[in-house]
Specification:
single chain, 248 residues, alpha+beta, 9 helices, 10% strand
């Protein structure tokens, strides 16, 4: 599988990116490679969407070629190429303000960005615009899950899978079917990913319950936000709307 390495630049983390469709076939390799790269002094975390890894050289001393060699060594099952288009010179010469001069630049934390995305998703959901909700709430949840992982905590999806495993162990039942963790996560993220990507193997028509998938996306993002001590400003309005619309 081919992958592209984008080295870290100033305040930007580095990224190792690959094809989302192929990644599920390399789950065990990804886990092993992450452990190896962390042992070389990198902070590294997989993207929840499954399309790569974000990382930081904690020594902040390594050159691009050294980083490339480290990743090629630890991710030996990948064909890794280096992307140098995101150069230091371009960042340093970039104007501080927008070239359009319409609005000033914004400086937001990742948690602020995630909550703005989630709140917009909730507003769209209540106004009947379901499709965009799935992508927007999914993006918010990806950030929130990443923040939890950065703190050494588990996401709501990880907690759900842990519960499934506990029920299976305690009862012997095939709770949630015979699916593996990888299969479950692929299933949970299927519609979110299909709405963001398309390749030659995909059909042109996708049939699904937009309402259900939008609702699930918001619920996952709300759960991860709560684990971080965050709450959408329109959460109470949303909960009332859900009760009146679905349960009454």
């Amino acid at each position: 599988m081919k992958a592209t390495l984008k080295p870290p630049r100033d305040r930007y983390t580095g990224n190792l990116l690959w094809n989302t469709e192929e990644a599920p076939n390399f789950y065990s390799e990804i886990i092993r490679s992450l452990e190896e790269i962390r042992n070389l002094g990198y902070w590294a975390s997989p993207f929840p969407e499954g399309d790569g890894v974000t990382f930081i050289d904690e020594s902040k001393k390594k050159k691009d070629i050294e980083i490339l060699n480290d990743f090629r060594s630890c991710f030996g099952w990948l064909d890794v190429s280096l992307d140098l288009t995101f150069s230091k010179e371009k960042i340093e010469n970039k104007p501080a303000e927008s070239k359009l001069s319409f609005e000033e630049n914004v400086a937001l934390t990742k948690s602020e960005i995630a909550m703005l995305q989630l709140e917009d998703a909730i507003d769209l959901f209540m106004s009947g615009k379901r499709i965009s909700v799935i992508t927007l709430a999914g993006a918010a949840d990806s950030i929130l899950a990443g923040l939890l992982d950065q703190r050494g905590e588990t996401s709501a999806a990880e907690d759900t899978w842990k519960y499934i495993e506990e029920v299976r162990a305690n009862t012997g039942w095939a709770y949630a079917g015979e699916r593996t963790k990888k299969e479950a996560f692929n299933e949970w993220n299927y519609h979110r990913n299909r709405l963001k990507h398309h390749d030659k193997r995909d059909g042109e028509v996708l049939e699904f319950s937009a309402f259900d998938q939008a609702y699930y996306a918001i619920q996952r993002a709300n759960a991860d936000a709560a684990k971080l001590g965050l709450k959408a400003r329109n959460l109470q309005e949303y909960e009332y709307w859900v009760i009146e619309t679905i349960f009454m």
